[in-house]
Amino acid sequence: MHETNNSASMEAVSRVERFWVVKVSIVVMLLTSLPYLLGYAIQGDALRFSGFVFAVEDGNSYIAKMLGGAQGAWLFRTPYTPMQQGGVLMFAPYILLGKLAAFPGMHDQLVALFHLFRILSGLLFLLATYEFIAFFVNTQSLRRFGLLLAGLGGGLGWILLLAGQSGAFGSLPLEFYSPETFGFLSLYGVPHLAASRAFLLWAILIYLRFVKSGELSIARTAPRAGLCWLAAGLLQPLNALLVGFILALHLAVLGLLLLLKSHGGRKPDWRKWQRSFFFVLEAGILPGILFIYLAWKLSQDPFLQAWSSQNILPSPHPWHYLLAFALLLPYAYAGARRILNQDRAGGLLLVGWALALPLLAYLPVNVQRRLPEGQWLVWGILALVAVEGWWAAPAFQTRIRRLVVIIPLCFSFISTTVLFAGGLLTVQAKASPVFRVRDEVAMFEFLADSGERGCLVVSSFSTGNALPAWAPMRVVIGHGPESAGLANLQEELKWFYNPQAGDSWRRDWLALHGACYLFWGPAEQALGSWDPRQAEYLGMMSQLGEYWLFEVELE
């Protein structure tokens, strides 16, 4: 049984295929929206839904960035630190989206805009992923399966959960917290990573098409690749470096093969390699400027240096990577041999990118986990190349036999099912921080209406994380990487709420940080038994249920 109606020419993506991708993408993104819709449906009179079902701390920070944009910001300045900042060109989509919202009802508008961005980014992610797969895979049905595998697949970490060993080797299984390596979490709730992945793939794809053709104009194609490369970097700066690494690695391998050819007595043709080299140089101009700008800002801005030092994202134990990719390994090995034997354009790039996984994952930098971006997709494509080769053999010309080699890969969807179900269960639990007490949110909104915008509020970490998502204020601490000097400030806040600290120390501390307001609720009361209602230098602004808001009056 040969596939006639279900095959496509190499790389070409038909209008019918694109329409299918759009339909599937809409279904996927609507499904990922169900937990969020459920959250709003069940929030009730006592609670307010945050708008997020996982990574709520980061989610609140995205809304805070959008709120900054709504207040007129064009550069990123975090509200999660009292430290002075110069501003930097980062998180631009969130800042720009914020300009579409206005009070009243600001928070709900921002959350709605965030999820519209998430859905749009998901569509771009899935379309770019399909086009990238299509460059290497002929068979239309495998392209479609590959899209589902790349967007919804995960490793075998669910086995550890089933065995009650979710914390084995020091962390959760990789697919349950790494949107970079896999794809589903980006679709589920990290839109800038999904959009960045899309532009990363398009930049590499334009390069691959240029290399494959040998005739396309550098002047016409390199700027397109450069714009995609730049967009990937604006959305996630490390992805700009990753594109450069992948293209440089490909050129280096091609150059090495040409040198070996010359030493073997054959005359190598350097013309095509030189064209590819100059293509990368021209395409890299804009992302290169971005990289220089960000490097300069990092060298000049003490806040960015503090943020960078605290933004620690280590890769997990190697066993987690092995478990994540174990399902694909035998397929990918066969696929790598096939694609290299066929000398297909881009085969070296794909295999080189896959083999770079250990280097990228364990490079001695503090953001190791960010660097294996797209690795699940790369290994998945190699697996599909193997399956396509097997399907072409006479022994696999029946549907049943073809399914036999595909079914094992379907075990990769179990982890994603667990994540999706976990989101629904998390919402139904109606627990903090996914939900906030309505009285607390009412105090946030009162502060947004009555307070001086941009002023510093003293609060606990948990309160400080949510408050800037509802009110355009700064807080002492509230976000792991973005709260500069977090460890020291946490200790200082514990002492601040300790009755033994003394009012003289508290006055000096408030003056040092330029605090304007103090928030006092259950989270703050858990830090210490000091009662701010007795402090003469604090004037009560409002009280609702268990929540109090004071204005700092030092003079």
Q: Let me know the average pLDDT.
A: 95
Radius of gyration: 26 Å
What are the segments in which pLDDT stays under 50 over at least 5 consecutive residues? 1-9
How large is the count of helical segments? 25
The fraction of residues in strands falls at: 5-15%
Shape: elongated
Q: Which structural class is indicated by helix and strand composition? A: mainly alpha
Helix content: 55-70%
Total strands: the figure is: 7
Strand order, biggest sheet? 4-3-5-7-6
Termini separation: 87 Å
Sheet having the most strands: 5 strands, mixed
Written overview of the protein:
With 555 residues, the protein is mainly alpha-helical. Helices cover 61% and strands 5% of the residues. Among the domains are: 160-182 and 191-409, no CATH class; 437-552. It is built from 25 helices and 7 strands. The strands form 2 sheets. The chain has a 5-stranded mixed β-sheet with strand order 4-3-5-7-6. Strands 1-2 form a two-stranded antiparallel ribbon. α22 links the parallel β3 (456-458) and β4. It is elongated and about 90 Å long. The N and C termini lie far apart (87 Å).
